[in-house]
Amino acid sequence: MDIESSSDIDAEEKKAAVRLCKTITQWLSSWFNRSLSACPDEVFQLLPIIENLQSEANDEDLREDCKTVLLCLSRVLVPEQSINVILSTIKEVSGLKSWHARANILNFMQQMVFGNFFLVQSAKHKQTVQSLLLHLLCDEQLEVREMAAVTLSGMIHCSYVELNKDMLDHFERLRSTKVKKIHKSGDSDPNCTSSSSLVDAASAGSNIPLQRLIQRHAGVLGLSACIQAYPYDVPDFIPQVLVDLSVHVNDPQPIGTTVTKTLSDFRRTHHDNWHDHKRMFTDDQLITLTEVLVSPNYYA
Q: In what residue span(s) does the Proteasome activator complex subunit 4 C-terminal domain sit (predicted)?
């Protein structure tokens, strides 16, 4: 068999595979629209395949079909005995190589939890969801980390995930991760741990230890999510968290951008009732926030 014939066979096999995937996804979409019975566990076990196809398939129609199936699947009423299977499959997707799949599964999980809110109230289910969120908050891909923060904020806002001292301490430890500039010789500068030094480290590009930056950003995103979960209130913990975040306004990107956006959103959502809200802050905390909000770096 010559090379040209082999290439033709491979192309035909790919076309046949695409047609098969389209048939399955379109059948699933049709089934969701007409069936009144509970969704079988086997359908949820297709999640990793469908997520990968939506992210990686070259056929635009197939990607749209996968998107439709995922939307239907996230809104379907789930039998209580299937919750463990679904959460286990979501965890499997969170470990896929495709960052698009890892980001999309967060949106799927949020809709699934909200759509079956009274069926996922056990401590075990809540712990599984929280662990997945904290895991993806430290993802190597920026878009996944940001989506995890948005999802976490929504889960805290609806009181599904409990915001307690342990969680706040976890984010405080992450955001306090020191980022040291690594010189070309391989030695690190022990003095390069301040916020201003981090800016210098950012200009060094690949000289920044990426994993430490990710951990630091995860902590900032986590604290930001805690603040954004209360858009019109000021719980006791928020004043100090805002002060802690303000320390990072000059950190390398994307950390600095996250802090600036969080402070901006807080000021916007709390502006109308600021006369009452500011009573939750000490004089020192108010001075610190005012200095950050009016500094040139805040608007940079």
A: 214-300
